[in-house]
Amino acid sequence: MVIMNTKLKPIVHRIEDNIIALQAFQDKLENQSSEKEKMILLDYPTVYIHNWKNSDDYEVYIGESGNVIQRTKQHYAKSGNVSEWQNQLTRKPASLYIIGHEHFNKSLTLDIENRLMLYMMSTDHVKKIHNKNSNLQNRYYTDDEMNEIFRLIWEKLRKTDSALFPKESAIKDSALFKASPLHKLTQEQENVKELIIEKVFTALKNKERGQLIFIDGEAGTGKTVLNSSTFYEIYLRAENLKKNDLQCCLMVNHDEQITVYQQIAEKLGLKDHYGEVVCKPTTFINHHSMDEPIDVAFIDEAHLLLTQGKQSYRGENQLEDIINRARVTVVMFDENQILTTEQYWEAKTLEYYRKFAKHKGNYFELKNQMRMAASKETIAWIDNFTKAKKVSEIPVDETGYEIQIFDLPAELEAAIKKKAREEDCELSRMIATYDWEYNQKPSKRKRLQKYWEVLIGDWHKPWNRELEKELGRREKKKIKTLSWAEQPQTINEVGSTFTIQGFDLNYAGVILGPSVKYRNGEIIFDPDESFNIKATRNRTLSDGTRKKFGEVLIQHEVRVLMTRGVNGLYIYACDEELRKALKEAVSH
């Protein structure tokens, strides 16, 4: 193991981004700097950041080089093919950061470059990253120094511009960061990604169509990152192969997540070059015909696809309609996150698609839990609660994951707000089962309160999206691209599955409403206590019969809520018997 000397600090210089300032910087290094600094910045590999403002936001280009002076002069040159960012760079006032370190080598600088791309793409004030390829590295001699060196670099960069380089905790909590295609994948994810890419380009070469790649994975197994990474990589490889006519679309049937993917496409320049490449399934189906299939369709949260018609969708099965409009369709699926009757999959239909993918060698399962920083025992406890309907003894988690049970909702609220004030836990929120009335659309019926609220005795809090109505125009503009949990006013709201599904929290304060009971040693999910009409109404099956699936859909709802917390799960149960069972389950 390499032991890092913490006295070795990174060298960070910020200069004006033009040839005159660069030449002055080179002269100063050669004539006034120490021999050591001159060697680190002129002879060692370095990392650099070009950045300039476009309106109120930044655009950036990040790179690494063994000769930063020569490389930067090449960027200023306007001979040959000049990229879009080089044209902008020479027209706008810009800054250049040059970063060096005594332990930099080629692999380490590539990893620093990649991490900077990942962070800056996830920054609110960065409008666009002009890099294309990322060069993620495997193991190398000094790789165990990378995290600490990067932390010190980011610390220095923050002192120069806190808008361009915000707090690390704020970046890591952002929905953009968590869905970014620039993450380093696990070996499990990497294997599936390479197979998907191989299948796509084989289908394009052979002019095939109707291919289905089916990936099963429970909450927190990394489906979204695999989806976005593969989607982006296919575009990069198509550009390298000069396939500029590639038609690739990413879709998800979730308002919050669609916004995240649209931001990613815009920040990475996909929207500029290929147009609208992110949309909802119904939009895709309505704008593409079976006669002219696109090359590849990616579907995140495919369990949210509709399996029956509604007002905006007149078909019978969105997945089938998408498969008919693409050469290759890639789906990320979790049966335990189906929440409404219109998304319900009959067993024989779902098994048909799984078998169809398996027959072609295109079926995969993601099994490694990546969201929750919890032990196997803790994850097993949540599985036991949400799947087996049992309250077992709550384990003491050696990893530090925290499960707490509360006697009162006010105590739960106070604990979550206390966590949200801690630097690395700002993304802590209350969420609840849909057991209190809520109508997002304007209603003729008068409410008893100012807001649609979660009411428990004398305690009450507005449902999600209620406090947003009170914000001014400037505040609404600030939160426009943020997910529900990232918006500051939502610390005083209670979220639902419709705003939190697909997203992470640091600590999840889960209110289990009256629909979740405990009787005779078993958890009961009671549709009669739910206000989620989409889960409790009848569903017409393929044979014409009508059936209710409220119990299983509420069970899924509870699982979604209880798997949101990365670092902890706080619970208040409205049902007295359930609350008592949970209190008795706490390890002493």
From TrEMBL:
Boundaries of every Schlafen group 3-like DNA/RNA helicase domain copy: 211-575
A Pfam family found in this protein is SLFN-g3_helicase
Say which domain of life the source belongs to: Bacteria
**What is the official name of this protein in its record?**
Schlafen group 3-like DNA/RNA helicase domain-containing protein
Gene3D superfamilies xref list: P-loop containing nucleotide triphosphate hydrolases
